[in-house]
Every structure is written in structure tokens, then in C-alpha cells.
């Protein structure tokens, strides 16, 4: 069995929420970039635009991974601290070349033809962590913190990250907007291209 076409997959989207903590939740930094589904040979944006030629370094890195897969994550342009620089990312997309980007991966939807979306999130992330190499500058596995969402939000604010996403540890991957994923953002951050052009990054 092969993975389905990326265009047939509907993204799971987080609901806006206030910072919170909870024992049944995990928390990840919210990376500020281009939301992207990926297979070994294709990149597809949230708007279902084919972005394969935009980021050739990402495709080369994905082709080094074993097996077949569908990944969900954000393509970002990171500074030396690992903080996304969205304004620089705009120029990188227009030029389709220049500064190298990093695919910050947070979910594994399919692997070797198997649909993993009904598995609990932590099981999907465990499989993902074994797939993504730890030393590849073009691929980054997104780590998480259990339960302590408010503390993680404070850390995000201190380093200039967009915010955090709280996810039910046992949640499946479901299409569309969901309250199983809750996002808390810093003031002044907006999803995707809605970001004000005048805003400067920390």
C-alpha cells in the first residue's frame, strides 16, 4: 500500500486559546513559518499549492529518510538561536533560493503505507522521533513538554517564539479545526501571510 496523494489530506488545525497547563496535554513551541505536508518527493502548502521546487534542500533531506511517509510541520527560516524569522522567510519564498530553511516536523500521518492518524499523538510522535535524524540542519523533530503549558508559554515569550500549541496526548489526527489542539500566541503574531509587514522580529 502507498501513501495517498498529499492533496487528499486535510490538515488538523488548532483552536485559539489562552495559555494553560494540564496533565493530559503536551505542549510544543509554535513555529512561525509555512505549514507544509511532505512526502519523500513533494511539499504541499496549507492552501494545497505545490511547493516542491521552492525548497530543494528540504526535498533532498527528506529523500535521505528511510521508507515512505507523510509528515506535517512548518518550514521555517531559523536564526542561530533556533527562533523562526518570518520576515526573512517571505523573501526566501519569493526567490525560491538563498538562505537554507528547516522543516520543523511535529506529526507523522502515514508511514510505509500505513495510516497512523487514528493512533494516539504520543505514539505518532515516538515513531516520528525515530525517523528524523538529530543532526540534520534541514529537518527538525519538534520536542514537547508534558503538562506544563504555562511555563512553556513563558519560555516562548522570553525567546521571541510565536507561542505554544497544547495537544491532547491521546488525540488522533482529525481533519479541520479541533479543540484537541489549542494554540496560544504572543500579541502581534498572526497566522501565515496575515502578519503585519512592519513587525520586526526579536
Question: How does this structure look, described?
Answer:
This protein has 202 residues and is an alpha+beta fold. The chain has a single domain (10-190), classed as D-amino Acid Aminotransferase, Chain A, domain 1 (2-Layer Sandwich), CATH 3.30.470.30. 19% of the residues lie in helices and 30% in strands. The protein is built from four helices and eleven strands, in the order ββββαβαββαββαββ. The chain has helices at residues 56-62, 86-95, 121-131, 149-159, and strands at residues 12-16, 25-30, 34-38, 43-45, 69-76, 102-111, 114-115, 139-141, 145-146, 163-168, 176-185. The strands form two sheets. Strands 3, 4, 5, 6, 7 and 8 form a six-stranded mixed sheet that branches. It has a five-stranded mixed sheet with strand order 1-11-10-2-9. β10 (163-168) and β11 form a beta hairpin. The radius of gyration is 16 Å and the shape is globular.
Descriptors for this entry?
202 residues, D-amino Acid Aminotransferase, Chain A, domain 1, five-stranded mixed β-sheet, 4 helices, disordered C terminus
Give the SSE map.
Blueprint: E1 12-16, E2 25-30, E3 34-38, E4 43-45, H1 56-62, E5 69-76, H2 86-95, E6 102-111, E7 114-115, H3 121-131, E8 139-141, E9 145-146, H4 149-159, E10 163-168, E11 176-185
Parallel strand pairs: 1-11, 6-8
Antiparallel strand pairs: 2-9, 2-10, 3-4, 3-5, 5-6, 6-7, 10-11
Amino acid at each position: 500500500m502507498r501513501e495517498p496523494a498529499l492533496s487528499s489530506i486535510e490538515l488538523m488545525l488548532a483552536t485559539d486559546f489562552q495559555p494553560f497547563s494540564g496533565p493530559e496535554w503536551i505542549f510544543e513551541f509554535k513555529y512561525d513559518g509555512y505549514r507544509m505536508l511532505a512526502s519523500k518527493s513533494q511539499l504541499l502548502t496549507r492552501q494545497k499549492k505545490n511547493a516542491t521546487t521552492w525548497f530543494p534542500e528540504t526535498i533532498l533531506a527528506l529523500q535521505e529518510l528511510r521508507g515512505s511517509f507523510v509528515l506535517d510541520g512548518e518550514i521555517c527560516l531559523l536564526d542561530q538561536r533556533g527562533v523562526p524569522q518570518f520576515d526573512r522567510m517571505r523573501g526566501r519564498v519569493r526567490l525560491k533560493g538563498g538562505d537554507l530553511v528547516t522543516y520543523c516536523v511535529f506529526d507523522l500521518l502515514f508511514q510505509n503505507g500505513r495510516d497512523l492518524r487514528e493512533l494516539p499523538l504520543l505514539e505518532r510522535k515516538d515513531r516520528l522521533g525515530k525517523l528524523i535524524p538529530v543532526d540534520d540542519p534541514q529537518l527538525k523533530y519538534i520536542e514537547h513538554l508534558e503538562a506544563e503549558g504555562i511555563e512553556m508559554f513563558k519560555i516562548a515569550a522570553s525567546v521571541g517564539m510565536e507561542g505554544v500549541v497544547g495537544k491532547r496526548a491521546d488525540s488522533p489526527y482529525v481533519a479541520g479545526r479541533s479543540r484537541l489542539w489549542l494554540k496560544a500566541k504572543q500579541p502581534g503574531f498572526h497566522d501565515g501571510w496575515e502578519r503585519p509587514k512592519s513587525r520586526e522580529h526579536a
